[in-house]
Amino acid sequence: MRLDEFIEDLEPDADAERRRLAAEKSYAITDYLEDVQREFQQSISGDTVVGSTSPSIFVGRSNYPRVSTGLLSPVGNEDAAEEFVTDSRWYHQDYGIDDVLQRRTGLLNSTKSAGVNVEDVWDGFVGVQREVAIADRPVGVEIGLDSTPDIDVDVGPDDVQTPTGPRASARSADLTENPHVPPAIEKTLEDDDWNAQGAMNYLYRRGFDVYDINTVLSAGALGRGENRRLVPTRWSITAVDDTVGQFLRGSIRNEPTISEVQVHEREYMGNRYWVVLAPGRWEFELVEMKAPGSIWNPAPEGDVWMGAAHEGYGGRTGYVEETAGAYYASRLGVLEHLADIGRQAKCLVLREVSDDYWAPVGVWQVRESVRNAFEGEYGTAETLHEAVQQLVPLLPVSMNRLRRKSELVAGLQASLGDFG
Length: 420
Prior knowledge:
Layout: H1 3-9, H2 14-23, H3 29-43, E1 44-45, E2 48-54, E3 56-59, E4 66-74, H4 89-92, H5 97-105, E5 107-115, H6 124-134, E6 139-145, E7 167-175, H7 183-190, H8 196-205, H9 210-218, H10 233-252, E8 261-268, E9 271-278, E10 283-290, E11 305-311, H11 324-341, E12 346-353, H12 364-373, E13 379-381, H13 384-391, H14 399-405, H15 407-410
Parallel strand pairs: 5-7, 10-12
Antiparallel strand pairs: 1-2, 2-6, 3-4, 4-5, 6-7, 8-9, 8-13, 9-12, 10-11
């Protein structure tokens, strides 16, 4: 489908719908917290969480190498514990911002301070945490608390990890059932000579999604024995996206290029993504445009904030600072698609963050939006330049400003009309 027809066929009332959603920004989450607090009070007997089921873990990064380790447990929803796990199902179930915040604030984060070196630690609180992390389903635990839950939910402008819920200092944790550990994860645990990168790629090839691998890495259950350490959740998310992305990039290096310029689009949670693929050797760039009034650009009368990061055929040598985890998450989605079709391409991802994105939900929404942008029809153009020219009127910035920020767009031939 020609790009102009593709753009015309997109939902014509999308802007009106975004405005409607903005007008209805739901701050019911604050009322919901009152219900959460009541459930916690009913579920805590003395200093023990009764009937707790932990589907996941959390590792903080403050004071590294001594960090806060946490067991995440839904209180009052133990039978539905799996629904509280951050993964691709949230996208396919069309979760909104409220849905995510309600599930995250419904998770009690029972924390205890621990050193990151955990090579042989499989007992005590950290041992239970690691058992939960390597299991393929929620695990029953009994948690002894040293404090009552703090309902001051941590929802800050962090575009990597999902928000965390109420916290309480834990004294102890015990399993109330035996965790079920997949054979592939047992294999990575038993091989003390396997480096973490190799183990991550092995698990990915065996069908584990990056969400599962991230949890195992965070619990210090991957890598050579003497190097096994707890990895803060924020770091492990990006590390897995980057490692798997490098593996996939290597797998397409000798593949033929795509034969046409393609434009894919996806909109989710106030974020709009344009994914432009063009014939040529692998090259990737993410350009982010964050509207005034959004959580990273709060001044309502300010200018659109822009950030970008780029890599060529050989990849990057340093960490991306400006676009951070969104870069690795979006790159992974593109590389998965190219590996699936056995092709390579130049790729430009344009991410527009509107003021509808009123609370951060985590980098998973970037990953899933780009992954799913390749579903359905797409637009085609004769050249990358033509594709960008047709998209610019739909963006909140001019071609001139986009060219100043984007290496890929800067390399395109300019016309006088671009500077109007």
